[in-house]
Amino acid sequence: MDWFTASEYWMSRLVFQRALAVLYLVAFLTAALQFRALIGERGMLPVPRFVERMPFKHAPSLFQLRYSDRFFAACAWTGCAVSAALVAGLDSRVPLWAGMLLWLVPWVLYLSIVNVGQTWYGFGWESLLLEVGFLAVFLGNDEVDPPVVVLFLLRWILFRVEFGAGLIKMRGDECWRKLTCLDHHHETQPMPGPLSWFFHHLPRPLHRVEVAANHVTQLVVPFLLFTPQPVATAAASLMILTQLWLVLSGNFSWLNWITIVLALSAVEFPADPPSLPATPLWYEALVLTVAALLVGLSYHPVRNMLSRRQVMNRSFDPLHLVNTYGAFGSVSRVRYEVVVEGTDDDVPREDSDWREYEFKGKPGDPRHWPRQFAPYHLRLDWMMWFAALSPAYAGSWFGTMVERLLENDRDTLKLLRRSPFPPDAPPRYIRARLFRYRYTTWRELRETGACWERTYVREYLPPTRLAGVAQRS
Q1: What whole-number distance in Å separates Cα of residue 373 and Cα of residue 333?
Q2: What integer pLDDT is reported at residue 469 of this predicted model?
Q3: Closest by alpha carbon to 5, among 269, 290, 283, 228?
Q4: What is the pLDDT of residue 468?
Q5: Contact status, residue 37 vs residue 404, Cβ threshold 8 Å
Q6: Cis peptide before 230 (omega within 30 of 0)
Q7: Average pLDDT of 215-227?
């Protein structure tokens, strides 16, 4: 090891890069399969309409220069192809400069998607993937040992992810301080997983232990990342175990997985490093310049963490180079779900034949057991959770979604698990109703086979039809 590199981390770099490439692949695949209904030319929040009012400097993107659904699809599938090549290790089979350019491609493409994705891409893990992906460009390949400063910056991101999340909990909902949040969280989280029902029914004393352990992992352990080995490896390993516990308890897209990937970069794997030539001067100068830029940009996240008015998941620059993170500063005590139904009756009445649309991930049919989707991100399902919290979250897109369902729009129906209407016979009317959901007890599960019990709360959207469509006589 010289002053610039750390050869003992060459295996850590290899594991980190391949795992990050897998997450890039998942992110691009999610974009490619969902964009038409969400942000396409006929999407709920079309990109062309967005870029008309958003200056390039505020949201730099390839799609500011030109947009079509075909061009977006080409970018998304190109991102998939490049990510797959990186998973296969292509960056290690080309010169250093070419490997860096190869890592730059998915970053530019995904930045372009996020910056026009609007509400659908407003999640913290989008910025986290971009921030980590940008650093990966400068981590090098098999021609050089891993740069110390880049490894340090990766730990700095991990520190901000964990410590920021810990602070937002302690400053937010009092249930985190009382150690009672997990009495509710597994039931009310955005998208439960197949084991969430069982996590919810763990003994309450164990929930207290879970919360206390989480506070230790997020508020104490992050400082150990900057200590000598093997303490740093032990700290990172503890974070990995905590994140795997969260993976089992719910569907949080790739938030947990990218945190695990970050932690892997701090683990010193027992392996003999290869003997590599001296690091090129141009590479050292470039890495140090970028590091100085990122350290300077860290001022805003640090100031945010120290503020009593700390905010979660915010980017401080349009390139998402350095961001602030956090999750579940408050925890809902009651779960609400918006249930969307349609009927082909000429006149909608309460006793009409209302048929329910089933979503892939969000709770609907009380007997349908949740599936595991993470790290794949079901964007519409997540936003439906927010819509149930308040109609304000759905004001920009919910009406358009209803229109597309009334048209039996193929791209929109692909986002659902099941439509109750055949492709050639769309519903006449659609309505939405708000229900309160709760997990069934062990006894109720045995007797009914249902994991949820739901109770009608109120009307969310009255029966609605397409404008200009006359009633049948």
Answers
A1: 24
A2: 52
A3: 283
A4: 58
A5: yes
A6: yes
A7: 97
- Residues 86 and 137: their CA atoms lie apart, in Å, by 12
Counting residues of the chain whose pLDDT is more than 70, the rounded percentage is 99
As a residue count, the chain comes to 473
CA distances from 33 to 73, 431, 462 (A): 9, 27, 31
Burial of 24 (0-12, 13-18, 19+ CB in 10 A): buried
Please tell me the distance from the alpha carbon of residue 451 to that of residue 443, in angstroms, as a whole number.
11
228-229-233 Cα angle (round to 5): 120
- Whose structure tokens read 């390993």? 237
- Tokens, residue 351: 């006793």
Please write the tens of the pLDDT for every residue from 16-69: 999 999 999 999 999 999 999 999 999 999 999 999 999 999 999 999 999 999
Distance between CA atoms of residues 243 and 163, nearest Å: 14
91-145 per-position pLDDT tens digit:
999 999 999 999 999 999 999 999 999 999 999 999 999 999 999 999 999 999 9
Q: How far apart are the first and last CA of the chain?
A: 84
What confidence category does residue 1 fall into, taking pLDDT thresholds of 50, 70 and 90? very low
| Tokens linked to 214 | 């989480």
The DSSP code for 223 is G
**Integer Cα distance of 291 and 286 in angstroms:** 9
One-letter amino acid at 307 equals: S
For residue 265, give both structure tokens: 């970069």
- Local confidence band at 5 (pLDDT 50, 70, 90 cut-offs): confident
What are the φ and ψ backbone dihedral angles of 58, each rounded to 5 degrees?
Answer: -90, -20
For residue 342, the cross-strand partners are 355, 430
- Taking every pair of Cα atoms in the chain, the longest distance, rounded to a whole number of angstroms, is 84
Q: Which amino acid is at 140?
A: G
Buried b (16+ CB within 10 A) or exposed e, 197-229: bebbeeeeeebbebbeebbebbbebbebbeeee
Name the one residue in this structure whose structure tokens are 């509400």. 119
Contacts of 271 (CB under 8 A, 6+ apart): 10, 11
pLDDT of residue 422: 95
- Spatial CB neighbours of 216, under 8 Å, sequence gap ≥ 6: none
> How does strand 314-315 pair with strand 358-359?
unpaired
For residue 378, which amino acid is it?
Answer: L
